[in-house]
Amino acid sequence: MRMVDLIAKKRNGNVLSEEEIKFFIENYMAENIPDYQISALMMSIYFQGMNQEETAYLTKYMVESGEIIDLSAIKGHKVDKHSTGGVGDKTTFIVAPLVAAAGIPVAKMSGRGLGHTGGTIDKLESIPGFKVELTNEQFIYNVNKFKLSVVGQTGNLAPADKKLYALRDVTATVDSIPLIASSIMSKKIASGADSIVLDVKTGSGAFMKTLEDSKKLAREMVTIGKQLNRNTIAVISDMNQPLGYEIGNANEVKEAVKVLQGERIEDLRELAIELAAHMTILAGIYPDYNKATFELSRIIDEGKAFEAFKNFIKAQNGDISVIEDYDKLPTSSYHVEVTSTARGYIHQMDAETVGIAAMHLGAGRATKDDSINHGVGITLHKKIGDIVKENEVIATLHTDKQENHEITKLLRSAFTINEQPIKRNRMIYDVIK
Ligand code: URA
C-alpha cells in the first residue's frame, strides 16, 4: 500500500477501507509516513468528508494507538460526560457529584484550558492542596469509595489524535466534522467508560457556531460511540453567551458550589440536571426523564450532591474550608467595573470574546506553556434579554493588572444592546440519541 494512492483516492472523493485507515494511522505513528503526506490527506478529508464507517474506523485506530484505561475494577456502570468546550462551563463540578450521589461511579479524566475556553483541571487547581495526579490504584480506590474522582488526562490516551491534532492545528484542517468527532470520541473511548453523555455546544462561543453543524457533529459522535459499543447520547446546549455569571477558575468553582448549595442560577442548574438525567438513565438508575430530573433536583436541594463534592475534594487532598467558605478561594488585587455605554436590552454577548478577555486577564492560556492565575476572571451582571441603563455595571473584571483599558474595551465589544426587548435564549436545543 502506498500513501500517495490513499491521498489520491480521498482527494477524488472515494471511500477509504478499514485496512487503508489502519495503514496510515499505524505507519504515521511508526514515523514511516511524513507530516506532509498526512497533511495532504487531512486536507482531502476536509474537502471530501468521510462516511460514518470511515469515521468509526479512524476513531478505532486512534484509540488503539495508545493505552485503553481499564475501569473493570470499578463496580457499577461507568458513565462519562464530555463537553465540546465553552466559556464559563463549570457543569462537571455539579454533574459529577450529583450523579455520584445518585449512585453512579464517576471516573473522570479531564483536560486543561487553551484559548478562550477554560479547563476543569485548571479550575480544580484553584483549591489549595488539590491533587490532579493520582496513581491508577488510588484513582480506582477513590471511585469505589467516594464514587467520584477527577484526574488530569494521562499522556498516552489516543496518541495518534495528539499527533494528528497538532498537524491539523497548523494546516487549517481542524474544522472538519469527521475529524473533530473522531478526535473527541477517540479520547472518550480510550478513557474506559461504558456509556458517554456529550454536551455539544452551539453558538458564538462554541466550535460549531450554527445549530445545523452542531447537530451534524452530535449525530456523528453518537454514531461512532454506538459503532464502538458505547451507548452515547448528545445534548445540544446554548453557548451564545457564557454559562452562568462567572468566568475564570476560582470564581467558577465558587459559582458551582452555589448551585450545589441549592442557589437557583438557572441556566447552569438546568444544564447540569439535564446532563445528569441522561447519565442516570443510561446507567439504569432511573427509568425515565421525568423521574430522573425530579430525583436529581431533590438530591441537590437536600445537600447530598454538595456532600459528595466535599468528599471528593477532601479525598484528593483539597482544602475543603475554601469550599465551605468560598470567599477564602484565591482572588485578585483589583475589581474593575465595566459599564454599559447605551440603554436597552442585551441582544448578544459574544461568548468567545468574553473568554478571550478572561484569557488576557490571566485566567486562560494563549499558548499551552502559559501559566494560569487562579484568582482573576470576570463576573457578568447581565445576560441576554436583560434590560440595562446607560452607565450601569454590566460586568466586573477581577484583575491583578493596574491597567485594564484594552480588556475593558474588548469586553464591552462582546455586548450588543438594542432598544427592542428580546426573548431569553433556550438552554437545551435538542437531544440526539
Ligand atoms: N476538541 C478535540 O479534542 N478535537 C478536535 O478536533 C476539536 C476539539
Automatic annotation (TrEMBL):
Enzyme class, UniProt record, top EC level: transferase
Pyrimidine nucleoside phosphorylase C-terminal domain span: 345-418
Enzyme Commission code(s) on record: 2.4.2.2
Keyword set includes Transferase: yes
Source superkingdom: Bacteria
PROSITE patterns xref list: THYMID_PHOSPHORYLASE
Keyword Glycosyltransferase among UniProt keywords: yes
Necessary cofactors: K(+)
Record's signal peptide: none
Record key words, sorted: Glycosyltransferase, Transferase
Catalytic reaction equation(s): uridine + phosphate = alpha-D-ribose 1-phosphate + uracil; 2'-deoxyuridine + phosphate = 2-deoxy-alpha-D-ribose 1-phosphate + uracil; thymidine + phosphate = 2-deoxy-alpha-D-ribose 1-phosphate + thymine
Annotated GO MF terms: pyrimidine-nucleoside phosphorylase activity
Entry function: Catalyzes phosphorolysis of the pyrimidine nucleosides uridine, thymidine and 2'-deoxyuridine with the formation of the corresponding pyrimidine base and ribose-1-phosphate.
Subunit structure: Homodimer.
Protein family membership: Belongs to the thymidine/pyrimidine-nucleoside phosphorylase family.
Protein name, per record: Pyrimidine-nucleoside phosphorylase
Organism listed in the record: Gracilibacillus xinjiangensis
Lineage, uppermost ranks: Bacteria, Bacillati, Bacillota, Bacilli, Bacillales
